[in-house]
Amino acid sequence: MPGATRGWASRRLGMSDPMFSTPLVWQLGAGLLLALLAALYLRGWRRLRRVEPRLANVARLLAFLAGLTALALALIWPLPIWSNQLLTMRSVQKALVAMIAPPLLWLGCPVHVIVWGLRRWLRHSFVYLRQGHGLAAQGLRRTTQPLVGWFAFVGAFLFWHDPQSAPFLLGDTMLHYLAPWLLLGAALLYWWPVVGSGPRIHNRFPAWVLIPYLITVEIPNMVAGVTIAFSSQPIYPYYAAVHAQAGDRLRLDVMNDQMVGGAIVWVFGSLVYVTSIVLVVHRLFRSDGATAPQPPPNWDADEKFIAPGLEHRARQNALRKVDLRHR
Predict the structure, then answer these.
(1) Which of 76, 78, 245, 294 is found 20 to 30 A from 97 (Cα to Cα)?
(2) 315 CB contacts (<8 Å, ≥6 apart)?
(3) Which pLDDT does position 297 carry in this prediction?
(4) Which residues have C-beta within 8 Å of that of residue 214, sequence separation ≥ 6?
(5) How far is CA 258 from the centre of its chain?
Protein backbone atom coordinates (compact mmCIF):
# COMPACT_ATOMS: atom_id res chain seq x y z
CA MET A 1 0.00 0.00 0.00
CA PRO A 2 1.58 3.30 -1.00
CA GLY A 3 2.57 5.71 1.74
CA ALA A 4 0.22 8.36 0.37
CA THR A 5 -2.74 6.04 0.90
CA ARG A 6 -1.66 5.23 4.44
CA GLY A 7 -1.31 8.93 5.15
CA TRP A 8 -4.78 9.57 3.70
CA ALA A 9 -6.23 6.89 5.99
CA SER A 10 -4.51 8.37 9.02
CA ARG A 11 -5.91 11.81 8.25
CA ARG A 12 -9.34 10.32 7.53
CA LEU A 13 -9.43 8.40 10.81
CA GLY A 14 -8.45 11.47 12.74
CA MET A 15 -10.59 13.98 10.88
CA SER A 16 -13.73 14.84 12.82
CA ASP A 17 -16.01 17.73 13.56
CA PRO A 18 -15.22 19.45 16.89
CA MET A 19 -18.82 18.91 17.99
CA PHE A 20 -18.64 15.20 17.13
CA SER A 21 -15.07 14.41 18.08
CA THR A 22 -16.09 11.35 20.06
CA PRO A 23 -18.69 8.61 19.49
CA LEU A 24 -19.78 9.03 23.11
CA VAL A 25 -22.24 11.81 22.18
CA TRP A 26 -23.92 9.62 19.58
CA GLN A 27 -23.89 6.53 21.78
CA LEU A 28 -25.53 8.39 24.65
CA GLY A 29 -28.11 9.97 22.36
CA ALA A 30 -28.98 6.63 20.75
CA GLY A 31 -29.12 4.91 24.14
CA LEU A 32 -31.47 7.52 25.59
CA LEU A 33 -33.76 7.37 22.56
CA LEU A 34 -33.99 3.56 22.59
CA ALA A 35 -34.56 3.56 26.35
CA LEU A 36 -37.37 6.11 25.93
CA LEU A 37 -39.00 4.00 23.20
CA ALA A 38 -38.77 0.90 25.41
CA ALA A 39 -40.34 2.73 28.38
CA LEU A 40 -43.20 4.16 26.28
CA TYR A 41 -43.87 0.79 24.67
CA LEU A 42 -43.92 -1.07 27.99
CA ARG A 43 -46.28 1.51 29.49
CA GLY A 44 -48.65 1.32 26.53
CA TRP A 45 -48.38 -2.49 26.39
CA ARG A 46 -49.44 -2.86 30.03
CA ARG A 47 -52.41 -0.53 29.54
CA LEU A 48 -53.51 -2.15 26.31
CA ARG A 49 -53.13 -5.66 27.71
CA ARG A 50 -55.82 -4.91 30.32
CA VAL A 51 -58.24 -3.95 27.53
CA GLU A 52 -57.22 -6.07 24.51
CA PRO A 53 -54.83 -8.89 25.51
CA ARG A 54 -54.92 -10.43 22.03
CA LEU A 55 -53.29 -7.31 20.57
CA ALA A 56 -50.87 -6.71 23.46
CA ASN A 57 -49.57 -10.27 23.59
CA VAL A 58 -46.18 -11.50 24.74
CA ALA A 59 -45.02 -12.32 21.19
CA ARG A 60 -45.41 -8.66 20.13
CA LEU A 61 -43.54 -7.50 23.23
CA LEU A 62 -40.65 -9.90 22.57
CA ALA A 63 -40.48 -8.91 18.89
CA PHE A 64 -40.28 -5.21 19.74
CA LEU A 65 -37.61 -5.74 22.42
CA ALA A 66 -35.61 -7.93 20.02
CA GLY A 67 -35.75 -5.14 17.43
CA LEU A 68 -34.49 -2.61 20.00
CA THR A 69 -31.67 -5.00 20.96
CA ALA A 70 -30.63 -5.25 17.30
CA LEU A 71 -30.60 -1.46 17.08
CA ALA A 72 -28.56 -1.18 20.26
CA LEU A 73 -25.89 -3.43 18.76
CA ALA A 74 -25.89 -1.53 15.48
CA LEU A 75 -26.20 2.06 16.72
CA ILE A 76 -24.63 2.13 20.19
CA TRP A 77 -22.03 -0.61 20.68
CA PRO A 78 -20.02 -2.41 19.34
CA LEU A 79 -20.75 -2.14 15.61
CA PRO A 80 -20.36 1.67 15.20
CA ILE A 81 -16.75 1.26 16.32
CA TRP A 82 -15.97 -2.13 14.77
CA SER A 83 -17.39 -1.06 11.39
CA ASN A 84 -14.49 1.40 11.09
CA GLN A 85 -12.07 -1.53 11.19
CA LEU A 86 -13.71 -4.36 9.25
CA LEU A 87 -16.03 -4.37 6.27
CA THR A 88 -17.52 -7.56 7.71
CA MET A 89 -18.73 -5.64 10.76
CA ARG A 90 -20.15 -2.91 8.54
CA SER A 91 -22.13 -5.56 6.64
CA VAL A 92 -23.46 -6.96 9.91
CA GLN A 93 -24.44 -3.43 10.94
CA LYS A 94 -26.33 -2.96 7.68
CA ALA A 95 -28.12 -6.29 8.11
CA LEU A 96 -29.27 -5.37 11.62
CA VAL A 97 -30.39 -1.85 10.69
CA ALA A 98 -32.04 -2.61 7.33
CA MET A 99 -33.23 -6.23 7.46
CA ILE A 100 -33.65 -7.42 11.06
CA ALA A 101 -34.66 -4.54 13.33
CA PRO A 102 -37.40 -2.92 11.15
CA PRO A 103 -39.54 -6.07 10.63
CA LEU A 104 -39.21 -6.95 14.32
CA LEU A 105 -40.23 -3.46 15.38
CA TRP A 106 -43.28 -3.47 13.08
CA LEU A 107 -44.28 -6.92 14.35
CA GLY A 108 -44.55 -5.34 17.78
CA CYS A 109 -47.29 -2.99 16.44
CA PRO A 110 -45.31 -0.10 17.97
CA VAL A 111 -47.37 2.94 17.00
CA HIS A 112 -50.68 1.65 18.34
CA VAL A 113 -49.11 0.32 21.55
CA ILE A 114 -47.06 3.44 22.27
CA VAL A 115 -50.06 5.71 21.66
CA TRP A 116 -51.92 3.80 24.39
CA GLY A 117 -49.18 4.85 26.81
CA LEU A 118 -49.54 8.57 26.02
CA ARG A 119 -51.82 11.14 27.58
CA ARG A 120 -55.26 11.69 26.11
CA TRP A 121 -54.48 14.94 24.31
CA LEU A 122 -51.48 13.33 22.64
CA ARG A 123 -53.65 10.40 21.51
CA HIS A 124 -56.16 12.83 20.04
CA SER A 125 -53.36 14.66 18.23
CA PHE A 126 -52.19 11.38 16.74
CA VAL A 127 -55.70 10.49 15.54
CA TYR A 128 -56.08 13.95 13.97
CA LEU A 129 -52.70 13.61 12.24
CA ARG A 130 -53.67 10.22 10.85
CA GLN A 131 -57.20 11.07 9.74
CA GLY A 132 -57.12 14.84 9.26
CA HIS A 133 -56.86 16.87 6.08
CA GLY A 134 -54.38 19.55 7.14
CA LEU A 135 -50.97 20.16 5.63
CA ALA A 136 -49.24 17.97 8.20
CA ALA A 137 -51.59 15.02 7.56
CA GLN A 138 -51.30 15.39 3.79
CA GLY A 139 -47.52 15.63 4.01
CA LEU A 140 -47.38 12.50 6.15
CA ARG A 141 -49.50 10.54 3.68
CA ARG A 142 -47.43 11.65 0.69
CA THR A 143 -44.01 10.99 2.22
CA THR A 144 -44.98 7.53 3.50
CA GLN A 145 -46.34 6.17 0.20
CA PRO A 146 -45.03 2.62 -0.43
CA LEU A 147 -43.39 3.73 -3.70
CA VAL A 148 -41.57 6.51 -1.84
CA GLY A 149 -40.42 3.98 0.76
CA TRP A 150 -39.16 1.64 -1.97
CA PHE A 151 -37.07 4.33 -3.68
CA ALA A 152 -35.77 5.65 -0.36
CA PHE A 153 -34.70 2.18 0.80
CA VAL A 154 -33.00 1.14 -2.44
CA GLY A 155 -31.26 4.50 -2.73
CA ALA A 156 -30.13 4.38 0.92
CA PHE A 157 -28.49 0.96 0.81
CA LEU A 158 -26.91 1.54 -2.62
CA PHE A 159 -25.45 4.78 -1.24
CA TRP A 160 -24.27 2.78 1.79
CA HIS A 161 -22.33 0.34 -0.46
CA ASP A 162 -21.09 2.85 -3.04
CA PRO A 163 -17.25 2.95 -2.98
CA GLN A 164 -17.30 6.65 -3.87
CA SER A 165 -19.48 7.61 -0.91
CA ALA A 166 -18.12 5.09 1.63
CA PRO A 167 -15.07 7.23 2.62
CA PHE A 168 -17.42 9.98 3.80
CA LEU A 169 -19.36 7.47 5.94
CA LEU A 170 -16.32 6.03 7.73
CA GLY A 171 -14.13 7.34 10.52
CA ASP A 172 -15.15 9.30 13.62
CA THR A 173 -17.22 11.81 11.68
CA MET A 174 -20.81 12.93 11.99
CA LEU A 175 -21.89 11.08 8.83
CA HIS A 176 -20.52 7.79 10.16
CA TYR A 177 -23.00 7.88 13.05
CA LEU A 178 -25.80 9.60 11.14
CA ALA A 179 -25.87 7.26 8.12
CA PRO A 180 -27.26 4.20 10.00
CA TRP A 181 -30.15 6.33 11.29
CA LEU A 182 -31.00 7.46 7.75
CA LEU A 183 -30.84 3.85 6.56
CA LEU A 184 -33.10 2.84 9.46
CA GLY A 185 -35.69 5.47 8.53
CA ALA A 186 -35.78 4.28 4.92
CA ALA A 187 -35.98 0.64 6.06
CA LEU A 188 -38.93 1.38 8.37
CA LEU A 189 -40.78 2.99 5.46
CA TYR A 190 -40.01 0.02 3.22
CA TRP A 191 -41.06 -2.74 5.66
CA TRP A 192 -44.22 -0.90 6.77
CA PRO A 193 -46.53 -2.33 4.03
CA VAL A 194 -44.81 -5.73 4.10
CA VAL A 195 -45.50 -6.43 7.77
CA GLY A 196 -48.82 -4.58 7.68
CA SER A 197 -49.09 -3.73 11.38
CA GLY A 198 -48.48 0.01 11.13
CA PRO A 199 -51.08 2.79 11.08
CA ARG A 200 -53.59 2.47 8.21
CA ILE A 201 -52.69 5.75 6.50
CA HIS A 202 -52.85 4.22 3.02
CA ASN A 203 -54.92 1.52 1.39
CA ARG A 204 -53.69 -1.94 2.26
CA PHE A 205 -51.23 -3.32 -0.28
CA PRO A 206 -52.54 -6.45 -2.06
CA ALA A 207 -50.42 -9.45 -1.15
CA TRP A 208 -49.60 -10.22 -4.79
CA VAL A 209 -48.13 -6.70 -5.22
CA LEU A 210 -45.77 -7.33 -2.30
CA ILE A 211 -44.04 -10.15 -4.20
CA PRO A 212 -42.49 -7.87 -6.89
CA TYR A 213 -42.09 -5.22 -4.16
CA LEU A 214 -39.71 -7.61 -2.38
CA ILE A 215 -38.08 -9.14 -5.45
CA THR A 216 -37.10 -5.76 -6.87
CA VAL A 217 -35.13 -5.04 -3.69
CA GLU A 218 -33.60 -8.51 -3.45
CA ILE A 219 -32.04 -8.18 -6.93
CA PRO A 220 -29.95 -4.99 -6.29
CA ASN A 221 -29.06 -6.28 -2.82
CA MET A 222 -27.79 -9.55 -4.34
CA VAL A 223 -25.87 -7.70 -7.07
CA ALA A 224 -24.19 -5.47 -4.47
CA GLY A 225 -23.22 -8.45 -2.30
CA VAL A 226 -21.93 -10.56 -5.20
CA THR A 227 -19.93 -7.62 -6.60
CA ILE A 228 -18.25 -7.03 -3.24
CA ALA A 229 -17.64 -10.71 -2.47
CA PHE A 230 -16.12 -11.68 -5.83
CA SER A 231 -14.10 -8.56 -6.58
CA SER A 232 -10.48 -9.42 -7.41
CA GLN A 233 -9.10 -6.28 -5.72
CA PRO A 234 -10.07 -4.06 -2.78
CA ILE A 235 -13.16 -1.98 -3.51
CA TYR A 236 -12.84 0.35 -0.52
CA PRO A 237 -9.47 2.15 -0.20
CA TYR A 238 -10.35 3.05 3.39
CA TYR A 239 -10.36 -0.58 4.54
CA ALA A 240 -7.26 -1.38 2.49
CA ALA A 241 -5.42 1.38 4.34
CA VAL A 242 -6.76 0.24 7.72
CA HIS A 243 -5.58 -3.33 7.09
CA ALA A 244 -2.19 -2.06 5.95
CA GLN A 245 -1.80 -0.15 9.24
CA ALA A 246 -3.17 -2.86 11.52
CA GLY A 247 -1.22 -5.77 10.07
CA ASP A 248 -2.23 -9.09 11.66
CA ARG A 249 -4.23 -7.55 14.51
CA LEU A 250 -7.54 -7.73 12.60
CA ARG A 251 -7.31 -11.53 12.03
CA LEU A 252 -8.62 -11.07 8.45
CA ASP A 253 -6.68 -9.73 5.49
CA VAL A 254 -8.35 -7.14 3.30
CA MET A 255 -9.54 -9.59 0.62
CA ASN A 256 -10.99 -12.15 3.05
CA ASP A 257 -12.67 -9.34 4.95
CA GLN A 258 -14.21 -8.06 1.71
CA MET A 259 -15.34 -11.56 0.68
CA VAL A 260 -17.04 -12.25 4.02
CA GLY A 261 -18.65 -8.81 4.09
CA GLY A 262 -20.08 -9.25 0.60
CA ALA A 263 -21.30 -12.76 1.43
CA ILE A 264 -23.21 -11.44 4.44
CA VAL A 265 -24.97 -8.84 2.29
CA TRP A 266 -25.71 -11.37 -0.44
CA VAL A 267 -26.59 -14.59 1.41
CA PHE A 268 -28.25 -13.18 4.51
CA GLY A 269 -30.12 -10.55 2.51
CA SER A 270 -31.43 -13.18 0.09
CA LEU A 271 -32.52 -15.33 3.02
CA VAL A 272 -34.51 -12.44 4.52
CA TYR A 273 -36.21 -11.40 1.28
CA VAL A 274 -36.99 -14.94 0.07
CA THR A 275 -38.42 -15.83 3.48
CA SER A 276 -40.57 -12.69 3.33
CA ILE A 277 -41.85 -13.71 -0.12
CA VAL A 278 -42.78 -17.17 1.20
CA LEU A 279 -44.70 -15.59 4.08
CA VAL A 280 -46.52 -13.28 1.66
CA VAL A 281 -47.54 -16.28 -0.49
CA HIS A 282 -48.79 -17.99 2.66
CA ARG A 283 -50.83 -14.87 3.41
CA LEU A 284 -52.35 -15.13 -0.08
CA PHE A 285 -53.50 -18.70 0.59
CA ARG A 286 -54.96 -17.72 3.95
CA SER A 287 -56.89 -14.85 2.41
CA ASP A 288 -58.51 -17.37 0.04
CA GLY A 289 -59.61 -19.52 2.97
CA ALA A 290 -57.00 -22.22 2.51
CA THR A 291 -53.51 -22.87 3.84
CA ALA A 292 -52.40 -24.86 0.77
CA PRO A 293 -53.22 -24.95 -2.95
CA GLN A 294 -56.49 -26.80 -3.54
CA PRO A 295 -56.72 -29.24 -6.50
CA PRO A 296 -59.68 -28.97 -8.91
CA PRO A 297 -62.62 -31.30 -8.26
CA ASN A 298 -62.52 -34.84 -9.75
CA TRP A 299 -58.88 -34.42 -10.69
CA ASP A 300 -58.27 -38.13 -9.92
CA ALA A 301 -61.24 -39.54 -11.85
CA ASP A 302 -60.57 -42.94 -13.47
CA GLU A 303 -61.35 -41.76 -17.00
CA LYS A 304 -58.57 -39.16 -16.76
CA PHE A 305 -55.90 -41.76 -16.01
CA ILE A 306 -57.10 -44.66 -18.17
CA ALA A 307 -54.72 -45.87 -20.87
CA PRO A 308 -55.60 -44.97 -24.48
CA GLY A 309 -57.95 -47.53 -26.05
CA LEU A 310 -59.38 -48.70 -22.70
CA GLU A 311 -61.88 -45.87 -22.17
CA HIS A 312 -64.78 -48.35 -22.55
CA ARG A 313 -63.67 -50.14 -19.37
CA ALA A 314 -64.06 -46.92 -17.38
CA ARG A 315 -67.62 -46.60 -18.69
CA GLN A 316 -68.33 -50.29 -17.87
CA ASN A 317 -67.08 -49.80 -14.31
CA ALA A 318 -69.26 -46.71 -13.89
CA LEU A 319 -72.35 -48.64 -15.10
CA ARG A 320 -71.52 -51.55 -12.81
CA LYS A 321 -71.35 -49.19 -9.81
CA VAL A 322 -74.76 -47.73 -10.73
CA ASP A 323 -76.28 -51.25 -10.96
CA LEU A 324 -74.87 -52.16 -7.55
CA ARG A 325 -76.42 -49.09 -5.97
CA HIS A 326 -79.88 -49.96 -7.31
CA ARG A 327 -79.80 -53.58 -6.11
Answers:
(1) 245
(2) 303
(3) 63
(4) 194, 273, 276, 277, 280
(5) 22
Per residue in 261-317, pLDDT tens? 999 999 999 999 999 999 999 888 877 555 555 566 665 665 555 566 655 666 676
pTM over 0.90: no
Residue type, 61: L
Closest to 23 measured CA to CA, from 246, 178, 250, 182: 178
Instruction: Give pLDDT, residue 223.
Output: 96
Res 78 pLDDT > 90: yes
Q: Which pLDDT tens digit goes with each residue over 188-233?
A: 999 999 999 988 887 777 888 999 999 999 999 999 999 999 999 9
- Contacts of residues 39-47 at CB distance under 8 Å and 24 or more positions apart, as own/partner, are 40/114, 40/117, 40/118, 41/108, 41/110, 41/113, 41/114, 41/117, 42/117, 43/117, 44/113, 44/114, 44/115, 44/116, 44/117, 44/118, 45/113, 45/116, 45/117, 47/116, 47/117
* Side chain identity at residue 215, one-letter code: I
77/71 Cα distance (integer angstroms) = 9
Cβ pair 96, 70 in contact under 8 A: yes
Report whether 221 contacts 267 (CB < 8 A): no
CA distances from 135 to 18, 221, 322 (A): 37, 35, 74
Separation between Cα atoms, residue 45 and residue 58, nearest integer Å: 9
